[in-house]
Amino acid sequence: MNATSIWLTLAVVLCILEIFSSTFYMIAIAIGFLAGAAAAAFKLSLSFQIGMSALFALISAFMIRHWKLTHLQNKASDIDNEIGQRVSIEVWQDENHARVRYRGSQWNAVLAHDCQRSDEGHWHISAQHGATLEISNKQPL
């Protein structure tokens, strides 16, 4: 097995392991291994292969970290923007659960603890729990 095959095998193994971790950092290291494979394909020295691998892995890891920080902050602010928005009741499923229309699509909703089912009035989002909206007929503050 030549050096290029070893680098490529390591990259594939990390990509498979990434499926189970979902952090994307193993992909960054795999990108580094691909850079090492490219250096090995050009018959460069082992120290240069390792250096290229480390450099590309670090650059990839920093890019992933930057992407995660910017996107996670935006998600948190998006959830805050949902609070207080008006929804319309499509159908009641039981006394505490309903399907509501919000932003052109249907969502599962649960009544806030201080509310009771009513077919009249305006409903507002008071919280969000995953893909379920908590709704209230009291005006948000």
UniProtKB/TrEMBL annotation:
The chain crosses the membrane at residues 7-40, 46-64. The keyword Membrane applies. The keyword Membrane applies. Keywords: Membrane, Transmembrane, Transmembrane helix. This is NfeD-like C-terminal domain-containing protein. It comes from Deefgea salmonis.
